[in-house]
Amino acid sequence: MRNLLASCFALLSLSSLGQITFKPETTKKGEFYAHWGWNREWYNKSDIHFTGDNYDFYLRDVVAKDKPAEFDASTYFSPKNVTIPQYNFRIGYYFKNNYHLSLGIDHMKYVVQNGQTVKIDGTIDEVNNRYNGEYDNDDIKIRPGFLEMEHTDGLNYSNVELGRFDNLWQYKKVTLAVTEAVGIGVMYPKSDVHLFGNERHDEFHVAGFGANAQVGLNMKFWRHFYIQSEFRGGYVNMPNIRTTYSQADNAKQQFYYAQFNILAGAFWHLNKG
Q1: ∠ CA 61-189-228 to the nearest 5 degrees?
Q2: Model pTM?
Q3: Residue 212: exposure state from Cβ atoms within 10 A (0-12, 13-18, ≥19)
Q4: What are the tens digits of pLDDT across the range 34-70?
Q5: Which residues form the domain of 241?
Q6: Under 8 Å CB-to-CB from 72, ≥6 apart: which residues?
Q7: Is 30 left (phi over 0), alpha (psi -120 to 50) or beta?
Q8: How many folded domains does the chain comprise?
Q9: 165 DSSP β-pair partners
Q10: Which of 3, 83, 97, 149 is most buried, judged by most C-beta within 10 A?
C-alpha cells in the first residue's frame, strides 16, 4: 500500500512540472458514467459484541483480513463469475461541470482470522457448552467450535456519493484528472458465522451503515473510456449482524478500513447537443 501511495504522489508531482491547470470540462454537465473494477481492503482491529438468550460477551481487538480471489481470467473476466472477486460498481451523473452524484456498491470481504488469541469479557451460560463461564479480560483462542466468522458474500456497502472531477493534464486524446468523493450508505452483508457450532443464518440482511471518502486519478482515452485508481477510507457500524436463525442471537461491531481500487469505465451523453 505504501508503494501505491508513493506512485500516485509521484505521478501528481510529475504532472505539476508540466504547468498543470485545473480547468473544468465545459461538456461534463449532463454526462453519465459507469465503471467496474476490483478492490483490496485493510481493516483495523475491532471489538465484537455477541448476545443471545444465554450469553453476552465481548471479544476485544479482533484481527480480520480481506479475501481476494486468486487471479484467473475465467474468474475475473467471465460474465458469470464477475461477482466472485472483491469488486466495485458505480454509475453516476454530472449535474454540473465538476460535480456528480452516483450510486454504487463496494463488494468487500471480511474474514476474522482463525487461530488468533484475543481478550474476552462477559458471560456464557448455555447447556453443554464447553465455553461456559464468567470472563474478565481473559485470553481465548478463536477457532472452530468456538467461533468462525466472515462476511464474504460479502461485506456489501451500497452507497450514494457526491464527487468532484478536475482535469490535471491533457496530451492529444489522453486526459489525466483527479477525482474526490464522499459517501454514505447501508451495509447489507451475507455473514457466515458459526458460533458454538450453531447453524449459520446465511441470508442477506441490513446490518448497519457506513461512510467513506475517496481520492483517485482518472485517465481518459478518446473522450469516452477511462481507467481509474482510487484510495478510499471508510467507517462501518453494524449493530445488527445475524449470527444464527434465532432472532435472539446477534453480533455488533464497528471498524475502519482502507481500500485500493482499480477500475475501468466509460462516459456518455444521452442527449448530446
Answers
A1: 90
A2: 0.85
A3: buried
A4: 999 999 999 999 999 999 999 999 999 999 999 988 8
A5: 2-46+68-116+146-269
A6: none
A7: left
A8: 1
A9: 179
A10: 149
Residue 125, domain member (yes or no): no
pLDDT at 11: 43
* Confidence at residue 6, expressed as pLDDT on a 0 to 100 scale: 46
Residue 63 within any structural domain of the chain: no
Residue 250 amino acid letter = N
Domain assignment present for 12: yes
Question: Nearest to residue 46, comparing CAs of 208, 236, 240?
Answer: 236
Q: Which whole-number Å values give the CA distances from 232 to 22, 149, 153, 212, in the listed order?
A: 22, 24, 20, 7
Could you tell me which of 171, 272, 269 has the C-alpha nearest to residue 224?
269
Any idea what the CATH number is for the domain that residue 76 is in? 2.40.160.20
Give residues with Cβ within 8 angstroms of 195, minimum separation 6. 50, 146, 147, 149, 243, 244, 249
If you average pLDDT over every residue of the chain, what do you get?
88
Q: How far apart are CA 68 and CA 265, in angstroms?
A: 21
Cell of 23: 480547468
Q: Do the beta carbons of residue 61 and residue 113 sit within 8 Å?
A: no
Number of residues assigned to the chain: 273
The DSSP annotation for 156-195 comes to EEEEEEEEEEEEEEEETTEEEEEEEEEEEEEE--BEEEEE
What does the alpha-carbon distance between residue 62 and residue 114 come to, in Å, rounded to a whole number?
10
Burial class of residue 171, CB neighbours in 10 A (0-12, 13-18, 19+): exposed
- Which residue shows C-alpha cell 441490513? 206
In a domain, 61, yes or no: no
**pLDDT category of residue 170 using cuts at 50, 70 and 90:** confident
Distances in Å between the alpha carbon of 76 and those of 33, 162, 175, 183?
21, 28, 27, 26
Please enumerate in sequence order all residues whose Cβ is within 8 A of that of 14, keeping only pairs 6 or more positions apart, or say none.
Answer: none
